[in-house]
Amino acid sequence: MTRKNDAARAKSLREYITAFVDHHWQGIAAAAYDQYLKKGRGCLILEPADVEIGKMTYVAFDHLEGTGRLMEDQGPTLWARLKRHGDNIKCLLNYDPETQVTLVLAIGSSVTPPFDVVYSDRIKPREAYDRQAGYFIHESGSGEASIWVH
Q: How many C-beta atoms lie closer than 10 Å to residue 18's C-beta?
């Protein structure tokens, strides 16, 4: 596989994810804020295979005891994969939940650097949450939350 093909595939995937986020922004923003209120600062994990059904997972970082601690509910691999992105982890941990949603794209055994989804001209996460629109959350006994947007 050539770098040109890899770049084209990455661009296509990013466009696909961006279209999903654009279409489901209100539900994504509301669900992220809902989970922030319940569990604290965290991020939505999206796997490309789950885009069609609108499913994501919320991972809260409040239970971390410093940046070296592994996340027990997600296993060591997710935290280790996120830490590889260095300074991007600071963005992940320090986003503004009132105005931003942090989404991490998980592809197999790797993750893309976290990116903040900010729409200043769209509904903010808190306002979307107040409207209770566009999402369903299933809380499991392990503390993990699966989120579906529609």
A: 12
| CA-atom Rg of the chain in angstroms | 15
Give the residue numbers spanning the domain of 33. 3-149
Is 89 within 8 Å of 83 (Cβ atoms)?
A: yes
Pairing of strands 101-107, 110-111: antiparallel
The partner residues of 145 in beta bridges, in order of sequence, read 58, 139
Instruction: Quote the number of domains for the chain.
Output: 1
User: pLDDT digits over 113-137, tens only?
Assistant: 555 555 556 788 999 999 877 788 8
What is the tens place of the pLDDT at every residue in 102-115?
888 777 656 565 55
23-74 pLDDT, tens digit per residue, is 888 899 999 999 999 988 888 888 888 888 888 988 777 644 333 444 444 4
Integer Cα distance of 131 and 33 in angstroms: 12
Residue 47's φ and ψ, nearest 5 degrees, are -105, 135
Q: How many angstroms separate the Cα of 84 from the Cα of each of 14, 25, 95, 100, 131?
A: 20, 28, 19, 22, 37
The answer to whether the CB of 107 falls within 8 A of the CB of 88 is no
pTM across the whole model: 0.75
Q: What is the DSSP letter of 96?
A: -
